Amino acid sequence: MDIYEEIRGWLRRMVGEKGLGQEEVQIKAFPLTPQEAIGNPEEDDYPLLKGRERLMQAEFRGSVGQAYTDMYGDFSGPLSEVLEMELKNNYHRAILISTLNAVARYLGVVEGTIHCKDADPPHCARELLDYIRKNYGSPKVALVGMQPRMAEVLARHFELRITDLDEENIGQERFGVLVEGHERTGENIAWCDLAVVTGTTVVNGTLDQFLIDKPVIFYGVTIAAVAALMGLRRFCVLGR
Prior knowledge:
By secondary structure, this protein is an alpha/beta fold. The chain is 38% helix and 20% strand. It is built from ten helices and eleven strands. It has helices spanning 3-17, 34-38, 47-50, 79-84, 90-106, 120-136, 148-157, 185-191, 201-204, 224-230, and strands spanning 26-31, 54-60, 63-69, 75-78, 141-144, 160-163, 173-174, 177-180, 194-198, 216-219, 234-235. Strand 5 (141-144), helix 7 (148-157) and strand 6 (160-163) form a beta-alpha-beta unit. The radius of gyration is 17 Å and the shape is globular.
């Protein structure tokens, strides 16, 4: 089954079991400004601050769900419209995923659906280092998605390869590691002992590539509900 049909199915079941499907509940989704999303961290190299991506935020009965996307805009409509929406691009998928996160948060299925801010990202990266050391020792790591603070810490302590979709990053050396394009992702995944993968893969349609028989850690708020529902390993210790 297509992963997005599964996601729709989960959302329909959650809504149906709680009797929410009988209501014309409004979903409001809109892109946050960089400052709203990540605050004012000391470093200025985050994708949110560079303007390449935005966080879409959906609100459901006072609960908030977010999702990273490179295609963003406003949306307001009933939950039934989200459930039937044609998922033809990252914008529509971001509406679905942020809505799922908001509804799952409201129902108590998941926590940490709001991005961390200010001084949190470096702290998160240090926590990730400790988590990997404790659970995996000293693995070869493939980082999918150029999260700068994670890349900085991982490059210092492990053998690391990085791939990214942002053309401004590709071909650049960051923290002593060459950032490669997405066409090298499969090779890097085969090489590594552990993959650390951005949760935005659930929005950009590449999640299936990482559902593999090898340790994978998905990071961030975007994949919060999908990780919980699929039993995927998610790292987002400072999500709010």
